[in-house]
Amino acid sequence: MLFSPKLPVPVFPLPNLIVFPDAMMPLHVFELRYRTMVRDALSGERVIAMGLLKPGWEVDYHGSPEFYPLGCLARFEEVEWLPNDCYSLVVRGLSRVMVSRVVREYPYRAARVEVLPQEPCSEDDPLILSEKYALLELYRRLLPDAPGAAPGVVAGAVAERAPGPLPGADLSYEALVSTLCMMVETEPLEKLQLLGFDSIIERGRRIREIAALRARTKPRPASDPGEQN
User: Fold this and answer.
1) Is the pLDDT of residue 222 over 70?
2) Residue 221 confidence class, pLDDT cut points 50, 70, 90
3) How far apart are CA 28 and CA 43, in angstroms?
4) Are 178 and 44 in contact (CB under 8 A)?
5) Which of 190, 188, 202 shows the shortest CA–CA distance to 135?
6) pLDDT tens-digit profile of 10-61?
7) 107 preceded by cis ω (within 30°)?
8) What is the pLDDT of residues 154-207, one digit of tens each?
């Protein structure tokens, strides 16, 4: 899903969250400057650029900490204004982007972005169908343990519990790959590398490799002392 903004877009860089095209992410926005950002975006195209803060962001968080230029445009799909003047949002990733120039710093950053096209793929391609089958198996195994299943605080926002399990078979191939990239627990920089792949197929294969490696290295639960062989 490509969307090319004509004007500079608000930038919402976070320390540990990557959004992927055609994936959904619930957020609770509580920081003042980002509440302002939400209000401004609502008066326009309802689009922001979500990015990843660089290491050391804590030192200058309330100023302008550096962020990686690769990010993802996201559109507000659902917006709820709360009594404490915070916002509960559901955003959908639209397109990968490269931030070309920051044009405003305060109260939040706004930048011009360049949309990065992805290699086309067809849902009817036998290779895609085979890859999708493998990804659906992974998706169904991960649902109970997905990091998005529990709330987690991020800078300026809280990633809320994902809205009920999506029926995996109804997801497009790209949406499935993107959802898995957000579900699989791995380092933010590794997820940023996944976002950098032009090929959705390559991204899907890589997230399966990461998930398989994590499954092999995940500590086994301690045995019950009262259990007998």
Assistant:
1) no
2) low
3) 19
4) no
5) 202
6) 999 999 999 999 999 999 999 999 999 999 999 999 999 999 999 999 898 8
7) yes
8) 446 655 544 444 446 788 999 999 999 999 999 999 999 999 999 999 999 999
Q: What is the pLDDT of residues 54-86, one digit of tens each?
A: 999 989 888 889 999 999 999 999 999 999 999
Straight-line distance from the first to the last Cα atom of the chain, in angstroms, rounded to the nearest whole number: 54
CA pair distance 21, 70, nearest whole angstrom: 13
Residue owning tokens 């003047």: 85
Asked if residues 139 and 165 have their Cβ atoms less than 8 Å apart, the reply is no
The span from the CA of 115 to the CA of 98, in Å, is: 7
Angle in degrees, CA 204, 120, 193, rounded to 5: 40
Q: What is the DSSP string of 20-81?
A: -TT-EEEEEE-SHHHHHHHHHHHTTTSEEEEEEBPTTGGGGTTS---B-SEEEEEEEEEEEE
- Identity at 28, one-letter amino acid code: H
User: For residue 163, what pLDDT is reported?
Assistant: 44
**pTM of the shown model:** 0.83
Query: Is the distance from CB of 140 to CB of 210 less than 8 angstroms?
Result: no
Our CA angle for 113, 114, 116, nearest 5°, is: 135
